[in-house]
Amino acid sequence: MNSIYAITPANLSLEKIISKTSNLLELGIKTYQYRDKNNDLNIIKNNSKILLELIKENDGKLIINDYPEIALEIGADGFHLGFEDYQKKKNKNFLKKHLNLIKENYIKGLSCKWNLELVSNPPEDILEWDYLAVGSFFKSQTKKDISLARSDMVMKEVLLKTKKPLYSIGGINNENIINLKKMGYKKFAISNGVYAFEDHEIKNIIKINNEGN
């Protein structure tokens, strides 16, 4: 996975998501998460298929949020779960049933919010996570009810809690990404910061991200 991970905003129509993703692919962003909290499963599956086709044509990767069964059905590259979603019986049963296929072929990501213990010891009773996500770092349009880090100390401390790839998430844009780089973050999951901003601002994110890498 690339160090910039674009997450589709839930408030955009599929037409706008496709148009903007096409532009982001041209700018060089290759890793995406399809996140939809509003539609039914059939709509999510159909939208994911359309987005996957575009991304694969441009040598990118698509992760499906919340629904590992959709990721497997459409042949996406992986899935992303929150801790609470991972704990659901239906998800655990699905992961166990398809474990061999998932272990060999799919990227698995887990959201940890600001739970430092979860970052240190993610649940791996069924599978090993390929990456973790932590946040929210700043006020976010994507997750309006999530808590922010209380201090720079907490933001820095979490980096020491895992050797797994760690994505920072929540309200990241071309103005504040530099502060996270200074703290030591190297991977960034960004939604509005790439889907709602102009090309020159997105190029600045990419430039800052590449500096020192």
3D architecture notes:
By secondary structure, the chain is of the alpha/beta class. The chain has a single domain, classed as Aldolase class I (TIM Barrel). Helices cover 44% and strands 16% of the residues. It is built from 11 helices and 8 strands. The longest helix has 17 residues, at 41-57. The model has no long low-confidence stretch (mean pLDDT 94).
In terms of per-residue confidence, which ranges show pLDDT below 50 for 5 or more consecutive residues? none
- Number of structural units classed as domains: 1
In CATH, the architecture is Alpha-Beta Barrel
**How many whole angstroms does the radius of gyration measure?**
16 Å
**SSE class:** alpha/beta
- Please give the largest β-sheet: 8 strands, parallel, barrel
- Sheet with most strands: strand arrangement: 1-2-3-4-5-6-7-8
Tag the structure with descriptive keywords:
globular, eight-stranded parallel β-barrel, alpha/beta, 8 strands, 213 residues, 11 helices
SSE topology:
Blueprint lengths: L3 E4 L6 H14 L3 E4 L6 H17 L3 E5 L2 H7 L3 E5 H5 L1 H9 L1 H7 L1 E5 L4 H5 L10 E5 L16 H6 L8 E4 L7 H7 L4 E3 L1 H4 L3 H12 L3
Parallel strand pairs: 1-2, 1-8, 2-3, 3-4, 4-5, 5-6, 6-7, 7-8
Helix pairs in contact: 1-2
Describe the structure concisely.
44% of the residues lie in helices and 16% in strands.
